Task: structure prediction
Amino acid sequence: MKKSRVDALLSQFSSKRILVVGDLMLDEFLWGKVSRISPEAPVPVVEVVKEEFFPGGAANVARNLIGFSKQISLLGVTGVCRHAEFLKQLLVSEGIAVDAIQSHSSYQTIVKSRVIARTQHVVRIDRESRVRLLPEHADLALKQLEEMLPSLDAVIVEDYAKGVLEADFAEKICSAVRRAGKILAIDPNPKNPLHWKGVTLIKPNRSEAFATAGIAPSDGHGDPLEDADLMEVGRVLMRKWETENLLITLGEQGVLLFHRDALPYHAPTRAREVFDVSGAGDTMIALFTLALTAGATPAEAAEIANHASGVVVGKLGTATVSPAELMASFEE
Result:
């Protein structure tokens, strides 16, 4: 893409309004150093020198968007606890609207704690309990969605299979967004096989795509456009989901885009160094969707999202990309 085209698209981002729906989490990072093994068990002793918290899950998608547009909202549920309050405080401090976040004592706020010694990920501790969204809370969420839709440009649905998205709720979200004529992007989870149909974009990673298509996974070496198994997965999922765009993330091979009216398009990775892949998929769907709202073609949106993810994987932790970093990636 020419720099002038990227500039033109980025100039439109700040006016876009996007709602992110899905499983909300709080990411905790304990940074430290290891100098000895515990006398109690054959495990390293991590001396913590820094503790950080970031919005995670669907909240991380919103965090990836807020650097480009200050009109980003979240819809989801948390428990009633200090972690929930802390998560909302973090979101508000970054300018993300939290009016559509429900907090109820019937849910547990999801917290993922990562212990990292220098750059080595030592262990992750998950605090979560999968609880189905209660009907009255789903009804309230749908009412909030309906009220917000007229002012939105797009809706992104992030499914981490933690209980917020059930079949009936997901179907009603799709129906409401389609009726409103808005862009709808889905990040699916094969552990929660919902019937996403007729949406603008679905973004699985390679392993999720193979699992959902029911095809045995392959190694995926060489040119993705020459990978017969991967191409068949794309064809199966385009038929299954009846989506306009299917974006399969391929790790070090970049992304592969299937579009209803065009040949498959491969964008090789733009990452210069890879330190941490956590959150890269969130960046991918956030920037692809935002680019579409600004008038980018699907191929252009894939390139922008691919560059953004290439920046993020070069950082440690739940990272995001800035407009300046995105432009610098294209210039390089």
Remarks:
- The first strand starts at residue 18 and ends at 22.
- The mean pLDDT is 92.
- The radius of gyration is 20 Å.
- The domain at 3-24+56-109+129-331 is CATH 3.40.1190.20 (UDP-N-acetylmuramoyl-L-alanine:D-glutamate ligase).
